[in-house]
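Technical annex, item 7. During the second reporting period the consortium partners agreed on a shared format for inverse folding records so that results from different sites could be compared directly. Each record opens with the tokenized structure and is followed by the designed sequence. A conforming record, contributed by the partner at site C, is shown below for reference.
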């Protein structure tokens, strides 16, 4: 990492802080230090509307006692203040006097499994602003009906280290960026929106290889094309969901239900079903923290556990949950490296990294040809899901009719309505075109937001409920 950060604790001080945190009898204690730099730029209404730059260093201390967690944090790095933070976290324990000695390993640096040359956060702000202007101008010049263009740029660079009562002492760093472009087309009382985006854990060369004009035009083209879209039919139809961002449905409707805390508490539809068939034998679902350049890829999770590729569902059979240290221990399982937190102000939760359906054997064009009448969901928008029941509703951002084996008219106003496990049981085709969308996913849970990747090949569901405007 190419920026300086404060060295706030010597190894002997770390040891004292952890022992202080365990002084009331906790089972486990941890120090998490983070130094983060963030930049956000908004270009809207043909002007730079906002530019925010911030540096955020801080430290959090966590104590676990049974199933309870005590957490406290500070950005005041005086040693006596850090000891006070340890005292606050320690109050979660109630077993009396603690006497655990801690022996920390020498701090070990853990690198990503992929290289990032010339991180984007080192690039001059002027060059980033120029990129946004070029995207803005290309979108506006595409068609006179484009009346509004909004571009949001965000980047983050982070250095962090973790030391805990198990002797672990590791450090790592990462950086990422995201650009999100929205164009609005207005004509004859209709107002339609198109979006395009890019990003991930890339370096400056990635921006050079991806001209802003293309992404500006992509968003404008989508908005204009939707002006001609027909009202979506309503009913139950076969649905073909495109590769890549279509995986957001799996993330929301299935992925959250496979997170360890929901299953440890017995409130997920997948609770107690390890080893059982839970969906079509064509479906294998993976959560992988090692995908090159993806937003959800990390060298270690926010508890210091090395990242890995975790098979959650294999050929329809539930194999594993996504686990952090706490929930793994309470379930008598091993952590899968899914302990993630938004910042030093938060304690880690079991969260997704890059979650996707693995590639199948079908040619996507053959899947299209197999449909007499159905829906092609080329791009999904926002959605809602109930973790307990698995029920969901998702907007189709860009969709088309499939008639007699061919993609025909574009449709608007369509939603997909269903139940995650049920839909996964109705998968009758899985394409060979796996794509992992690396650039834009952000996942919220319990008020914390972390970057993620989603993905899938093209998949065919035999029947889904489509909420439209024509019956």
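Designed sequence (site C submission):
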């Amino acid at each position: 990492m190419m920026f300086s950060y404060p060295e706030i604790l010597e190894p002997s001080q770390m040891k004292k802080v952890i022992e202080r945190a365990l002084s009331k009898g906790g089972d486990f204690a941890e120090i998490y230090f983070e130094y983060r730099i963030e930049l956000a730029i908004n270009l809207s209404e043909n002007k730079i509307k906002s530019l925010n730059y911030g540096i955020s260093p801080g430290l959090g201390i966590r104590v676990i006692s049974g199933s309870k967690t005590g957490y406290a944090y500070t950005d005041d790095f005086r040693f006596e203040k850090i000891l006070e933070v340890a005292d606050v976290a320690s109050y979660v324990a109630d077993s009396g006097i603690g006497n655990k000695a801690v022996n920390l390993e020498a701090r070990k640096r853990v690198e990503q499994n992929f290289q990032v040359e010339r991180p984007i956060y080192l690039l001059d702000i002027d060059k980033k602003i120029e990129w946004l202007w070029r995207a803005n101008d290309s979108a506006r010049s595409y068609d006179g009906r484009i009346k509004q263009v909004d571009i949001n740029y965000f980047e983050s660079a982070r250095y962090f280290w973790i030391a805990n009562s198990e002797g672990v002492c590791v450090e790592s760093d990462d950086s990422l960026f995201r650009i999100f472009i929205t164009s609005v087309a207005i004509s004859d009382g209709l107002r339609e929106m198109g979006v395009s985006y890019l990003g991930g854990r890339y370096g400056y060369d990635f921006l050079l290889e991806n001209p802003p004009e293309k992404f500006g035009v992509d968003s404008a083209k989508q908005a204009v094309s939707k002006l001609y879209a027909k009202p979506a039919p309503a009913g139950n139809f076969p649905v073909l969901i495109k590769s890549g961002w279509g995986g957001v449905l799996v993330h929301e409707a299935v992925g959250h239900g496979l997170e360890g805390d929901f299953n440890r508490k017995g409130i997920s539809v997948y609770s107690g079903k390890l080893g059982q068939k839970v969906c079509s034998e064509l479906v294998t679902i993976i959560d992988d923290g090692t995908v090159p350049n993806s937003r959800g890829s990390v060298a270690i999770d926010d508890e210091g556990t090395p990242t890995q590729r975790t098979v959650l569902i294999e050929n329809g059979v539930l194999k594993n949950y996504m686990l952090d240290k706490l929930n793994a221990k309470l379930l008598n399982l091993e952590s899968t490296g899914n302990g993630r937190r938004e910042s030093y102000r938060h304690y880690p939760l079991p969260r997704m990294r890059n979650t996707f359906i693995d590639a199948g054997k079908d040619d996507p064009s053959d899947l299209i040809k197999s449909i007499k009448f159905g829906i092609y969901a080329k791009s999904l928008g926002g959605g809602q899901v109930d973790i307990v029941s698995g029920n969901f509703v998702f907007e189709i951002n860009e969709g088309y009719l499939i008639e007699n084996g061919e993609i025909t008219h574009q449709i608007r106003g369509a939603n997909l309505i269903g139940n995650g496990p049920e839909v996964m049981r109705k998968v009758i085709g899985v394409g060979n075109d796996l794509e992992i969308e690396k650039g834009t996913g952000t996942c919220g849970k319990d008020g914390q937001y972390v970057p993620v990747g989603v993905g899938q090949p093209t998949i065919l569901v035999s029947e889904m409920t489509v909420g439209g405007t024509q019956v």
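The CA atoms of residues 232 and 436 lie 28 Å apart. The chain has three domains: 11-109, 120-155+175-228, 235-467. All partners now use this format for quarterly exchanges.
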